[in-house]
Write a structure and sequence with these properties.
By secondary structure, this protein is of the alpha+beta class. Helix content is 53%, strand content 21%. The strands form three sheets. A three-stranded antiparallel β-sheet has the order 3-2-5. Strands 6-7-8 form a three-stranded antiparallel β-sheet. It is elongated, with a radius of gyration of 51 Å.
């Protein structure tokens, strides 16, 4: 009786050890690809606890998170014959764990190599201005070039971005001089436009002041108020022009009256015969 109990206990322990050896845990960010006697099963294992047949099954876990992979700096010559160095970053994830585990030996390394060759190819097909300003279109072209072979490996390219474009020092100096000249040109155009508008306003103001001389006096008084705000200056008031004009008109009026009074009146003819002078 005791021997039977011992045998049952030993069998239970062995069964537990076998079950334990075949139990696997798949994390939420992983998928399990099971190989039975070297042949992959058609469906992968979902996250959670899964059991394998001891000595027959072997499971490979594939991460399905979005992976970020920097692309090393690639040197190339653009279409307009400028030598540049460009580096980028690739965002990708596994969409088919079974194909990622079977079709390619190391999908991460494979995606990196395709990204490098595609980056060199896109450099040779683009102009320098496109690399500096039209990056969105280059990002789409790079993603399409990398995604074409990666789709056969069960990998999807989410996004590709160019991080930096390194230019030769001589080209940087040339571009700096060009940008400085462009800014100076804009500054001169803005200054000339301001002078033109100011001249137009001054011409309008002069016409208004010529029509109404009192406006000149008001402008003079305003200027005096602005200058008087400075306590460290001496203000010399000019003689009002209108007062001079008043005196000038008064003098002309007096001269006209004096001239009129000094001119003798013409003699009026008398009636009757003229007297005859006798010798």
């Amino acid at each position: 009786m005791e021997g039977t109990v011992v045998a049952v206990v030993v069998a239970a322990v062995l069964l537990l050890l076998v079950l334990k050896s075949g139990m696997r845990v798949v994390n939420q960010v992983e998928r399990g690809v099971v190989f039975r006697w070297g042949k992959a099963l058609p469906s992968h294992r979902q996250p959670g606890v899964t059991f394998l047949i001891p000595f027959a099954d072997r499971m490979r876990k594939v991460n399905v998170q979005v992976a970020t992979m920097p692309v090393p700096t690639q040197e190339g010559i653009t279409r307009d014959n400028v030598s540049v160095k460009v580096d980028a970053v690739v965002y990708f994830r596994v969409t088919d764990p079974l194909r990622a585990a079977i079709e390619v030996q190391d999908y991460v390394f494979a995606v990196g190599q395709v990204a490098q060759s595609s980056l060199r190819s896109i450099i040779g097909k683009s102009d320098l201005d496109d690399l500096l300003s039209d990056r969105e279109r280059l990002h789409e072209g790079l993603a399409l070039m990398i995604d074409s072979p990666a789709a056969g490996w069960g990998v999807h390219i989410d996004r590709v971005e160019i991080k930096d474009v390194q230019l030769p020092e001589s080209l940087k100096r040339s571009m700096s001089r060009q940008a400085e000249a462009e800014r100076e040109r804009r500054a001169r155009v803005i200054t000339a436009d301001g002078e033109f508008q100011a001249a137009q306003q001054l011409a309008n103001a002069s016409r208004i002041m010529s029509d109404t001389p009192e406006a000149m006096q008001l402008r003079l008084l305003q200027t005096v108020v602005e200058v008087a705000a400075e306590k460290n200056s001496t203000l010399v008031m000019p003689f009002p022009v209108e007062l001079l004009r008043y005196f000038d008109r008064a003098v002309k009026k007096i001269d006209a009256e004096v001239t009129t009074e000094s001119v003798p009146a013409p003699a009026l003819p008398t009636e009757g015969p003229e007297p005859v002078e006798r010798p």
